[in-house]
Write a structure and sequence with these properties.
The complex is a heterodimer of chains A (530) and B (194). Helix content of chain A is 61%, strand content 1%. Chain A has 25 helices and two strands. Chain A has a two-stranded antiparallel ribbon. With 194 residues, chain B is of the alpha+beta class. Helices cover 23% and strands 24% of the residues of chain B. Chain B has five helices and eight strands; from the N terminus they run αααβββββββααβ. In chain B, a hairpin with a 2-residue loop joins strand 3 and strand 4. The longest helix of chain B is centred in the N-terminal third of the chain and has 13 residues. Chain B is elongated, with a radius of gyration of 23 Å. The mean pLDDT of chain B is 90. The chains are: A mainly alpha (530), B alpha+beta (194). The interface between A and B is large, with 63 and 49 residues.
Chain lengths: 530, 194
């Protein structure tokens, strides 16, 4: 490792300016410790969060301080509130300094210290979000006047819908970057070299087509554009380009999702109906900076509700909630297309696009992996954001409670691809009788008044990945079962405990369940960048 | 902290978001042994092959018109194809079918090879192929090797000059350029030969 910001020949994104000395870090930690132990008034408690200057948001967060009494372990109390011990003088990031904390003094476990622990953890988490989730995106991008101009020309051509004349230039600029991402995924999965070679050869031909899309679903260039805008800031970049219509859609979206619905209901407690709150949220989002503030509020509320004792669990809560929100924002912006001028206005367009291509291609490669590298040009890596027609209420947590079980049944019947197509398009492209029976297995109460399933599709559009993950343990248990005469009993023993009573238990097809469970698990292969 | 190979590959490819890249770089700084693992992983990467024929993979509609090629009758009497068996490639009807030449290719270990036409006399327009269910039917024979076989059809204008005396790449130079530019409809399909 060198001090010049490289590992071997690889560039480091974040060094060395994000490092701080032990003395600097100790000073900051001590300041937080004293601050927390002074038990400041609720508004000040949120000083490190993006909503600190938005008094209505601070009011909501302050009310949430009463949600749950903190019950930290002795180790957590010490980690947050014990005096900072002496340690080796080194230059490191804040988290590395934090991880070096050992031999801490015990801290009294009384109500005042428990309250101070909550304040210290809130303050630390808010600071960490600012550092890692916002500031880490800020970097110097290399300027290359020629390539930046080329990139602008290709972007304009992609946006115009007729980029064929610039295919060579597009590939010259960005195909090698996409190839590196695919190559990494293929190597990570340890695929045979002949398979890797074929996939990379296919990628060379499919890359441009994937950017163009199939004319029906969100084209790749729109998904890529959002990732370029994210280089300005992961939330503010894309959010700044949203049209009025998309802000309305964002309002509808956040007021109808389970956790977000609670956040927005708390924020607009005087507005009794969802429609009114959706309009209010859309108006709030008129200022793009409020996206980060509202997202921080949502995360803070989730933290105060759960109060995890473990810092890793706290951070998981942050990344999961921010990740989901960013996914929805991507879907909105990629469908919007109001961003061309913002995109062309950024400096270092080529370098930013290259970074975006690397991330986009990585997600794309994992998606292709789970589908045998079929390179369907019309399959977006960002699920589209859909809203319900006016007057059709979304499914509630209760009414949708049978859907995770139904998704498991679909997986066991080997119809994941059908489900995905159905959620995306409303059809499956064939007349599969198994799929038709699966639709009949859905409980009546999730159907629409007209007999359709628009509400289910919109619900699954958001929750499918979560349901897939939730079913992972049972899929794992099924995937290793021996196929013998006792298979049916073994399968039922593993699925019955969590099976929802509104979905009929399967009565046949058990040997295929084992193979289908293995295939479903392949869908859950690790993607560190999803 | 433990970092998976997938995460290290993502970092090497520049595919991690900055917070995750930061996590990896912190780990690399703390554990120099990780650097040697990165070097090993980097050595495992392979180069992307190149082929002068810019044929879109199966499933990707090719060229500006979005041509698709569909294998048909690949499972006779419940069995699969065997080497030498005949099967059909179905090509959607195009408005200018009478002006487009049918060029058939198959992928070999060293790349795409033109199977038809190989002589000036083999001059067949798309319109000359019989129609079934609104698609042109091209009958071909499965190649001798077992496994997945890739076939492709390109439809350059009949008016495109072809220098039959030249080697294959020179002969098809104008068609290759036009395929890359999306001007010549082109698509591929896969069949499994057992």
């Amino acid at each position: 490792m060198t001090e010049s910001g490289t590992v071997g020949s690889l560039p480091l994104l974040v060094e060395p300016e994000r490092r701080m000395s032990r003395a600097e870090w100790t000073e900051q930690r001590e300041e937080r410790r004293v601050f927390a132990l002074s038990l400041p008034d609720p508004p000040t408690v949120f000083r490190s969060w993006a909503f600190a200057d938005h008094s209505p948001l601070v009011t909501v967060a302050s009310r949430a301080l009463r949600l749950q009494e903190p019950a930290p372990s002795p180790a957590s109390l010490s980690l947050a509130l014990a005096p900072t011990p002496l340690g080796p003088e080194l230059s490191a990031t804040r988290r590395v300094h934090e991880s070096s904390l050992t031999r801490l003094e015990p801290v009294p476990n009384d109500s005042a210290h428990r309250a101070a622990w909550r304040i210290a953890e809130l303050d630390r988490l808010g600071r960490e979000i600012e550092d890692r989730e916002r500031r880490s995106w800020v970097r110097e991008w290399p300027v290359d006047a020629t390539r930046d101009a080329d990139a602008a020309e290709v972007w304009a051509a992609l946006f115009s819908g007729n980029p064929w004349g610039l295919r060579d230039r597009c590939e010259e600029l960005w195909l090698a970057t996409a190839t590196r991402s695919f190559s990494g995924v293929l190597a990570a999965r340890d695929l045979p070299s002949e398979v890797r070679s074929q996939v990379l050869s296919d990628l060379r031909e499919a890359f441009f087509y994937r950017l163009l899309g199939d004319g029906h679903s969100t084209p790749g260039w729109a998904e890529l554009a959002v990732r370029v805008l994210e280089t300005i800031g992961p939330v503010i970049g894309p959010a700044s380009t949203l049209s009025q219509q998309s802000r309305s859609l964002a309002g509808q979206c956040v007021t109808s999702r389970a956790g977000w619905a609670r956040t927005t209901a708390a924020l607009f407690a005087t507005l009794p109906d969802r429609e009114g709150r959706a309009t209010a949220v859309a108006e709030l989002f008129h200022d793009p900076a409020t996206f980060e503030a509202v997202l921080d509020l949502h995360v803070a509320l989730r933290f105060l509700q759960a109060l995890p004792d473990d810092r890793r669990a706290s951070w998981r809560l942050v990344t999961q909630n921010r990740g989901k929100a960013r996914g929805r924002l991507r879907a909105l912006v990629s469908a919007d297309r109001y961003w061309l001028s913002a995109l062309l206005a950024v400096d270092s367009l080529h370098a930013r696009t290259q970074a975006a291509v690397a991330r986009f291609a990585w997600s794309w490669a994992w998606q292709e992996m789970s589908r045998g590298f079929s390179f369907d040009a019309g399959r977006a890596t960002t699920p589209p954001c859909r809203s319900l027609p006016p007057g059709l209420p979304p499914l509630t947590d209760d009414s949708a409670s049978a859907l995770p079980t139904w998704v498991l049944l679909v997986l066991l019947k080997g119809r994941w691809a059908h489900l995905e197509r159905w959620v995306r398009t409303g059809g499956t492209g064939d007349r599969d009788s198994t799929w038709a029976r699966l639709l009949k297995d859905l409980p009546d109460r999730v159907g629409d008044p007209d007999g359709g399933y628009k509400r289910v599709r919109i619900h699954l559009n958001r929750e499918l990945v979560r349901y897939l993950e939730a079913n992972q343990p049972v899929l794992q248990a099924l995937s290793v079962l021996p196929i013998d005469r006792r298979l049916k009993n073994r399968v039922l023993a593993r699925i019955e405990p969590s099976w929802h009573p509104e979905i009929a238990l399967p009565r046949s097809g058990f040997p295929t369940f084992v193979e289908n469970a293995r295939r479903a698990l392949a869908l859950l292969e690790e993607d560190p960048c999803h | 902290m433990s970092l998976t190979d997938a995460t290290l590959h993502a970092w090497m490819a520049g595919a991690l978001e900055p917070p995750d890249a930061l996590r990896v770089e912190e780990a690399l700084r703390q554990d120099p042994a990780l650097l040697s693992r990165v070097s090993v992983l980097r050595a495992e990467l392979i180069e992307a092959p190149t082929d002068p024929w810019r044929i879109p993979p199966p499933g990707v509609p090719g060229g500006r018109v979005g041509l698709q090629l569909r294998p048909h009758q690949v499972a006779v009497f419940g069995g699969g194809l065997r080497p030498g068996d005949r099967f059909e490639l179905r090509i959607p009807a195009l408005l200018d079918a009478d002006t487009r030449r049918v060029v058939v290719l198959r992928q070999h270990a060293d790349g795409w090879q033109v199977l038809f036409p190989t002589t000036p006399e083999e001059r067949v327009a798309l319109a000359e192929l019989p129609l079934a269910d609104g698609e042109h039917v091209l009958e071909v024979s499965a190649g001798p090797q077992a496994g997945t076989q890739r076939w492709a059809v390109a439809l350059p204008p009949l008016s495109t000059a072809i220098d039959w005396a030249a080697d294959e790449l020179t002969r098809w130079r104008d068609t290759l350029k036009a395929i890359a530019a999306g001007e010549v409809p082109c698509a591929s399909a896969e069949v499994l030969v057992g």
